Amino acid sequence: MRVYVASPYQLPQAYYSYVTADIDQSEIDRFIDHRARAAKNAAANLQLHAFSKGHSTWFYTPIGYEHSVILNELAKHPPLAAQASHMKLNHEYWINIDLKVLESMQGMVILGLPGWTLSTGIRKELAWMTGLVGAPIVTLPLSPRKADPTGYDHIAIKILSERLHALDLKNLQAFHGFPVATQYSAAVEHFQ
Fold it and tell me: What pLDDT digit, counting tens, does each position of 48-83 carry?
């Protein structure tokens, strides 16, 4: 089974000024990098749990691939660095690629990183996936510290996480009806 691991990436535009008040742009970039690492680590943990249980499930995180492989590698080459920066912020470009990838998926895990209920990308991906009859969809609430302990002690990451988490609590109603797994191993059990 092929499972798409959805996670928030950019900060939500509708709440941008509230969330980023008094936070420097370099700190916001660090937060986005932190979220990408958290998505990559979560997908790796899901994959390890599936492997340890003998499941042939494959977990794919577009954020891990797009941020780590494409954007970070492009940024290392000066002629492409400006293009990489523009690509990083081009939501429509990435969501179109992600929706194409979703066509081959058979299930979805939504990583509950701070701000996940506000994510336009997750909402579009979820709308597409709910159209597949019988496709399992599971939410996996993760604290930023559990998903990626490196860098979480940085004060801006804590502040942004707390502000986004407060907004998530107001928006959870829209996501009722999907199973919630509190651990990686419990999430894997939904995809056999």
Answer: 999 998 989 999 998 877 777 676 677 777 777 666
Instruction: Break the chain down into helix, strand, coil percent, rounded to 5.
Output: 60, 10, 30
Q: What are the Cα distances from residue 131, in Å, to 16, 79, 116, 127?
A: 30, 41, 20, 7
CB contact at 8 A, 6 and 143: no
Neighbours of 75 (CB within 10 A): 16
> For the segment 146-159, what is each residue's pLDDT rounded down to a tens digit?
655 555 556 777 77
What DSSP line would sit under 83-117, residue for residue? Answer: HHHHHHH-HHHHHHHHHHHHTT-SEEEEEE-TTGG
pTM over cut 0.85: no
Enumerate domains of the chain plus CATH numbers.
2-188 (3.40.50.10400)
The one-letter amino acid code at 4 reads Y
Place of tokens 């969330």: 19
Q: How do residues 132-143 score in pLDDT, each as one tens digit?
A: 767 899 988 876
184 neighbors 45 (Cβ within 8 angstroms): yes
